[in-house]
Amino acid sequence: MFQLDHEIEAFREEIRKTAERAFREKAAYWDEKEEFPAENRDLLAKLGYLGMVIPEEYGGSGAPVIQGTVLLEEISRVCFNTALITQLALNGPSRAIAVLGSEEQKRRWLPDCARGENMFGIGISEPGAGSAMTDMITSAVPDGDHIILNGQKAYCTGGHLATHILVFARWGKTKGPRGIGALVVERGTPGFEVGHPARKMGGRGMPEVELYFDQCRVPRENVILAGDPESTASFKRLMSSFGPERVGNAAMCLGVAQGAFEAAKAYSEEREQFGRPICEFQGIQWKIADMAVQLHAARLMIYRAATNLVDGFPDPREAAIAKLYANEMVQRVTNEALQIHGHAGFTRDFPLERMLRDARGFSLGGGTTEILRNTIASMVYGRNFDQRRG
Fold this sequence. Notes:
Elements: H1 6-22, H2 27-33, H3 38-46, H4 65-76, H5 80-91, H6 93-100, H7 103-115, E1 120-123, E2 139-143, E3 146-157, E4 164-171, E5 180-186, E6 192-194, E7 208-219, E8 223-225, H8 233-240, H9 242-270, E9 272-273, E10 276-277, H10 282-307, E11 309-310, E12 313-314, H11 316-341, H12 352-360, H13 369-381
Parallel strand pairs: 1-4, 2-4
Antiparallel strand pairs: 2-3, 3-7, 4-5, 5-8, 6-7, 9-10, 11-12
Helix pairs in contact: 1-4, 4-5, 4-9, 5-6, 5-9, 9-10, 9-11, 9-12, 10-11, 11-12, 11-13
């Protein structure tokens, strides 16, 4: 196993106890009722976990990425919806602002993020621009001291609860990655409306919404990186901020898979058929062994990505590889864990069917597994491949 230092392992024990005590019992409730776990978010804020990776000078703990990764892993092991809250706080827009924002922006927004008073969402995908995100048409037009924002965003996790949204938009009449930049829109800004939460297969306590911008006037001081119609520089810098999100996504996969694995192992030792525990059958042993190997491999990849930083963000290649493997691993492991439980695992009396549903969404957000393969191949070849050509 990847050896972490004593302080990180002690922190793991601390958060595991907290998660078991505070989050496990109602994990099924948030899913069943499709209710946001506000009480869990309040506790995370009280304990200082939401500001863990925010620098100390802005009210956070200044913890390393690996500590936030372990936090996500342990919370996901018992409650995926609570982990989604944590992921947004650790690896969402506040992380990008901490690295890319101006000093004024950091002091204006980050202390309230650390206290849990600000909740940032992110608006990137559009109805016509999912994997092909550079097809986005949401426009940002400078107008004196403001930016006029027009367009629509889709699949914004927790957007109906967010106090601020980091919105990717296009400066100028450009196509592709040229001219794409980002700015922060505060809730209540005239011209900004939030759609109704969409019902999902998994992660049902943290629904997604569409965002609408109609002549929305955003102060220029809220621009994180302005798009340059003659350059792709802002877009590339913004894309680097996906590194923490991808590592966090992979860490949540690891946590969900670990929880499913532990449940399957325990069940195989208790469940008897043909007069003996089913763990004594070679077929079950091989399943458990394969699951253990996949968890071990994923953990090594994720921890490597979380400790290998470039300009404040996880190395893009390491992050993409870790996310790709973990996204597919969690589907295999949760599926096998359910199989070991037999028909009992298919019922809601056990958490396996929920874990399987939660696991499926990982390979869609933050870069699909297909797009990640394209990204990794581009890095291997050292060149970009234009997916638009026939």
